[in-house]
Every structure is written in structure tokens, then in C-alpha cells.
Amino acid sequence: MKIKCGACGHETIVTKSLLKGLLGSVVMSGGIIGWVTFSFAGVLGFYGGAATIALALIAGGGSLLMGKDLGLIVSVGEKIADIFNSKDYPCKECKRTDWGFSGFKNAEVIIASQRKSELAAAFKDVRKVLFIASGFLSSYVVDKTFIEKLEIVLRKNVSVKLIFSDVRSHSDWMKTGYTEALGYLTTLSKIYPNLELIQKHTHQKGIVVDHQYAIVGSFNFLSNDKVVRDESSVKIYESEAISKLSKEFLIR
Q1: Which of 141, 146, 101, 139 is nearest to 123 (CA)?
Q2: Total Cβ atoms within 10 A of residue 120
Q3: Which domains does the chain have, with CATH numbers?
Q4: What CA–CA distance (Å, rounded) separates 93 from 13?
Q5: Other beta carbons less than 10 A from residue 95's beta carbon
Q6: Measured distance CA(141)–CA(176) in Å, rounded
Q7: Which of 11, 35, 10 is nearest to 21 (CA)?
Q8: pLDDT tens per residue, range 39-96
Q9: In this structure, are residues 163 and 132 in contact, taking their beta carbons and an 8 Å threshold?
Q10: The overall pTM is greater than 0.90
Q11: What are 10-26's pLDDT values in tens digits?
Q12: Are strands 27-28 and 11-13 parallel, antiparallel or unpaired?
């Protein structure tokens, strides 16, 4: 796993040897606990599913984390990062101690404030296929500016699939924004056959860009325009996980 210095942005890879050097030998019931074992995870305060995630993070097993609860992964990662803060482990670049969890093998953590820049990057990076999945749809995001940017992508003959819940999943106060956004998209889909609108009952949230990378998490990319809560996503680069996520997005 990786931790990032909040002061200067320098990243450090957390390994079992680094943790061992930070904490020293951990002893329980008269014996030294093996590193990267469930007993060791218990000493760090992790049990059950959290222990499995902690061990995978420390061992660098990124593939083992795919499909696990994102919120729990971030929570465990932050707790491990806090160990470095509590031990006053200094950043090699700025000598400050302000560590936060920033990702794991072939993945990085995306916080809610980065949502707009990641969506803009997806529009810029895509060459062939773009998926955007969102639990809800709203004109707060899918407005005329969004449509203009999407049209630029469509003109490049990119296959775009937008996946979102139908009107039944939207509360009364959300329906005006949903109807307006759907109108914009429907009009555009009649001009560009490479735009597909997939409406279903879904809580899926994420982006897939050309099967090169994907973002999956708790943020509704087609409806949430303001960051009012702490929400996290994970940006992944592992081909097998991206392929699996793409297939899940298209299940109706």
C-alpha cells in the first residue's frame, strides 16, 4: 500500500519490513508474531474482514482487494497510515509527519474533491470506449456544458455508455433534474448512435476508460455536483479487475 504526505505530496510504499522497522518485534504469549499474519493484524487492531484487507495491503496483494468493500479498504488504509503519524515517522522530503492512505498496488485513492478533474480527464484520455455509471442522473451535472464536452468525445467516434437508474429510483425532488438531463442525453443519442443510455435499477458508480483504467467507489458522477460528504473512490489499473467491472456495469 501507499501513503502520501499531506504537506508535500511525497508518497511512500508501506511494506512489512518498513512496518517492522517502525514498530520493532511484536511479542504475544511469549513468542514473536510473524509479520503478515492474522495475529499481527490483531495487534494492529484488525479482525475478521478488516484483518484480511490489512494483510493484503501490507503484502502488496492488490488483486486480492478487488471486490472487497471500498469503504473498509480506505478505513483500514487510513488506520495503517495513522500508525506512521503516531510514531512520528518523518517524510523523507519535507520532514513533516502528516500521512494519509493513498492507494495500493495498481490502484490509487480518489477523494471527492478530485471528482471533477477525474471526469474531465476521462473525457480527455478516452480513445475508444468510455463507461460512466451513476446511481442517479441530474442536470446539476449533465447540463449544457457537460453535453458540449460529451459531444466532443462522441465526434471522435468513441463508444460511450452511460449507466444510471431510471425515474423510479429518483425521489420527487430529484425528478425535475432527472427529466431535464435525460432530455439532453436522449437528444444527443439520436444524433450519435455511438452514445448508449442504459437505464436500470442500479447503485453502481464509476468510470471505465478504454479498459486502461477504471474508477469505482461511492461518488455519483452523473448527479453529484457538490462535495458535501467525505466520499472516496479507487482508481485501478489492473486489466482483469477492469474487465470484470465493465461486464458488471452492462448487466441489466
Answers
A1: 146
A2: 11
A3: 2-105 (no CATH), 114-250 (3.30.870.10)
A4: 14
A5: 10
A6: 13
A7: 35
A8: 556 656 676 777 777 777 877 666 667 666 666 787 788 888 988 999 899 999 999 9
A9: yes
A10: no
A11: 999 988 788 878 876 54
A12: unpaired
